[in-house]
């Protein structure tokens, strides 16, 4: 009987894990801004166990349901970084989702399409199409996910922070105008060492070139410099960055915070003197835990109330 009970518990645990990590296609039927190609998704595992995905053709959402006894009804969609060339899907995706679950937040890791001329007629819009569709999907299926459709946040790391800040500033005119009337405005933003600006002095050149190409027009650079797109309707924002970030200058966060302040959008920013770029959940140079600062911010805004 003890063996049977143990087996039952293991099966229940496995079922719960499978449910928590359900992978859902982002679109039903045809994927917008896609064309037939020989592009195939690739995944590599690094020596440290990290997983990097590139050449995404079929975008998905991986669902991490908050435990029933902790669930707050708040949802966060996570956009991993990788310079618009790859996705750090575990380091800035799955691991973060599990941390959010501990706060009672249901998390969705977005495997979004990376800009690719071979598989997309317009590579500049494919990532934003996917981010907006993720918000639309979670909002429309809020009952099934047991979340509040008015408490859906978007989190992005590095280039994923550029995607999140684009979604947070370009929602008034969705790129897929045929997708229906459901709002694609995130209710709040969380940007971690984000690419924000495509100006020459601030841009992460790799992210900019991968999204817009090396010969982007001045109009395109302006359109995707998101500090220039902030309005009073931009969602409340939480920012984290390290001063010694040599990949994405800390000024990206500072100019976005300045624009939010100018438009009287509530914002909270945490800057560390050290930490470099891409530290994920743990900035090894400090005992401070930015996820606890995030928890406090979420609670202060009522997003952790049940």
UniProtKB/TrEMBL annotation:
The question of whether Hydrolase is a record keyword is answered with: yes
Keyword Hydrolase attributed: yes
Q: Where is the BD-FAE-like domain?
A: 63-260
Q: Signal peptide span per the entry?
A: 1-20
Which keywords accompany this UniProt record? Hydrolase, Signal
Single GO molecular-function term?
hydrolase activity
Domain of life assignment: Bacteria
PANTHER family membership: AB HYDROLASE SUPERFAMILY PROTEIN C4A8.06C, PEPTIDASE S9 PROLYL OLIGOPEPTIDASE CATALYTIC DOMAIN-CONTAINING PROTEIN
Its recorded name reads Alpha/beta hydrolase
Organism lineage? Bacteria, Pseudomonadati, Bacteroidota, Cytophagia, Cytophagales
